[in-house]
Amino acid sequence: MDSIQPTILIVDDEKATRDGLRRLLENDYDVYVAGDIAGAMNVLERENVDLLLTDLRLGPEDGMQLIDRALKMPQPPICIMMTAYGSVDTAVEAMKRGAYDFVTKPLNLDKVELLISRALRDSRLEQENRTLRQQVDERYGLENIIGDSPALHEVLDTIRQVAPSSANVLIEGDSGTGKELAAHAIHNLSRRNKAKFVTVHCAALSPTLLESELFGHEKGAFTGAHERRVGRFEQANSGTIFLDEVAEIPLATQVKLLRVISEERAFERVGGNQTLRADVRLIAATNKNLEQLVKEGKFRDDLYFRLNVVRIVMPPLRERKDDVPLLVRAFLRQFSKANDKQIVDVAPENDRHEFGHCLRPLFARLDNRDAARLMVSDEFVGARVQAYERQPVPWQNEDVIRQRRLEPFE
Q: CB atoms < 10 A from the CB of 257, how many?
């Protein structure tokens, strides 16, 4: 089985050079080639390229322009320049534009291999350091889960206990209860926090697209598959993959998912026969009762037991009403910061009121009306929040309450 390989794009207008470099590198890297800037940009926009090796002269085109465009991408590759016109001036200009290094033609293949290896190693170390700097905070990511209720403290304690392990985690709870925040916190506190946290929203994709999204596909695997695509499991290698709304995964895809999270950790891209391996930790979330879906034959029992190694249930806000003032203040601080205004607060008399049973419609109203108000005012009075509380809310309907008690994961 093959481990996930770094991706390299070779750009040269001479076919012999492209083919020679591809043969040299294809055993250790996932190699793409292009003969001009248009072809190179097509690959860069479709694939997650780790390193770009480009000639300075691409026929009538300038390789410097390609480097400029590549470095402006959201995830820019490492750039190395090849030139038969090597000079100090050319090297300095390439480095000024962001190139990692340059090599002169005729190429010393041993030097090229060593330079690529060093560049990828340095990039990996830089990414790890950047990730660590971003994640160094007093509460290790738990500060984003706001509340002080006993139910939430129990969740936070479970997160702290399970995060250092490699166990899969199943997070259950109503929509809007913070399942993705909990997943992020688990990753940030884990030993995998130097690697990627990759999210897949399973309910947003058709069965065919979901399988391609998870496992990738080969060129020509289906109509519209013009290039090979790396899947989310490959992207999350050594890190964490978060499957939101896991109950929406079709049974056929559940079989393949079961294989990749088993001891084998193996999968194939759609349309491919090469077996790949991905070392990932899986965190799944759902607002449905998976155990009931298993009984109904809508979810595989073996996959359920693989996912349900550690179970976390996010408490709904109606069960932790004392946290609402904290959440209100947190949202208001967020609005104030976004609009460059002084930090605002809820009027003190509102702390005596019981806010709505569901925070989502409350803050939909705050988003749409009061965010604009904050742009022109340095103060916020709680009259609108108080007025909203006096309006009927869905949870006050006894039939709805009874249904929610019987089916808490609808």
A: 25
